[in-house]
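Re: [help] complex structure
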Amino acid sequence: MLWQVCTATGVVDVSFSSSPTRIVGAEIDLFGSGEIWPALGATGLELLWGLLITFVVGIPVGLVLGRSKILHDMTEPMVNILYSVPYVMFLPIIIFWFGIGDVSRILVIIWAAILPLIINITAGVRNLDRDYTRVATVFCTPRLRFFYAIALPATLPYILAGVRLAVGRALVGAIVAELFLASQGLGYFVQTQTSNFNMDNAMAGIIILAVVALLLNGAVRMIERRFTHWAGSQ
Amino acid sequence: MTSSNVCLDARDLLLGHKARRGNAFSTAVLDLNLQIMDEEFVVIVGPSGCGKTTFLEAVAGLVPVAGGALEVGGKAVKGPGPERSLVFQHASLYPWRTVLDNVLFGPQVQGRLTRQVRARAEELLEIVGLSHVTGKYPHELSGGMKQRVNLARALATDPTLLLLDEPFGALDAQTRENLQDELLRIWQADTVSAKKTAMFVTHDVNEAVLLADRVLVFSQSPAHVALEVKIDAPRPRDAAWRRSSEFLAYGDRILEALHHKPADESVNPHPTQDSAAAEDSARNHDNGVNTDQAAEHARADRGSGVQGTVRLGSAPA
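Output below.
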């Protein structure tokens, strides 16, 4: 509201800050002309691959690290270092190694997303109720079976909390990657539109990103509600 | 009721727990000798902390045998096995599984989930009186119902030796008495106890006399068998057995042994003069043991807390 009033009365220059009504107009233009779809598609595809690899690798790794004290102690310093140092620091090296193609961008997304996931799952498995493991032992549960019959469902609340973190960080990773090393995607779109002094389109791009973030978050929350309804009421 | 084959045989058994750091070894059971026959229902009573639960866990394969011999069905116990199953002190159900899926857990992980096993699980749930909640989740059940699931889960693997670790200890008095009667009924149901042996650990003397073919009284730690009492009451028994004079006399005799008074071997289970007093003393004893146990739990909790701190301190920064 304040924004709209300020821009309408000329207190703030519209060409610098855009305004809500102009963003709505730009939004209609972008979707109407189909101009935004390639950018949205590119970002979506990166996110899809990045998150897919993150989950497929991160969840089993987290479970194993949580169960094995030796592996956990061996990898903990490394994980902590990688988690504490901003991954943006590694961007030049990733560019140097993998160029500025899709591989690099997906790698940045994985790098951003996988560590909180692993750390969360490891913590979850280490806090596994001792009774759960005792029951499993008494009924002679084979080791591999233990992972998917007990460790996986028991830590599902932790896993999904990690997934939520991972999705958020993946989104940041995707945009950062696009700002630095891309010629497509939403991040690139916002950057070029700003450079071209088209604030309406740039702001519209940011709004689209916000909607994407909210949708992803909502999806994870739905999964949480569906699969961990038993947790917390114990 | 009982056959002549030995189901469980402990000879000069030594059990204990190794300290996490160093070589310290705390002995829980020393030179224990006992035998349990096939199809016998044996109850072990003893003061809290006497090592009776450690013994049960050793039979279940959770605690390694440190010395002597421990055999089930003629084979040395080297770990958990499908022919034994355990009814846990706390129900320890998996909260993400429905009641039926919890009961099916054992057969499932042992890879023998057939249609018969499923039918059997449903039958067991009916026997324990839970056929109306098979699709519910554990958090929707009361404490007593959870323990029934716990029992059904242990029976679902069709074990030859059923181990029960104070399964009613954490319940309120009324539920406990209810479940004791229920267990008596369930055990005496044809399909349940067929070719099964039970070893039940408790500190509740009445529970012991109600359920047992034979009661073994453990001494203070390190445990050995201080007294052995054969309960000569015909089966099927029912709740009325609780109120008989023999019942009280048996209870008295076991209590006496628990309280370290030298048990007079010539005492026969005859009605005591003052049965009300006997019951009172039984109740008092129960309370005493419960308090001890609470203290023990508190100690254990403190212990693990300290350990957590140590680990934190020594973790690489």
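The CA atoms of residues 96 and 173 of chain A lie 18 Å apart.
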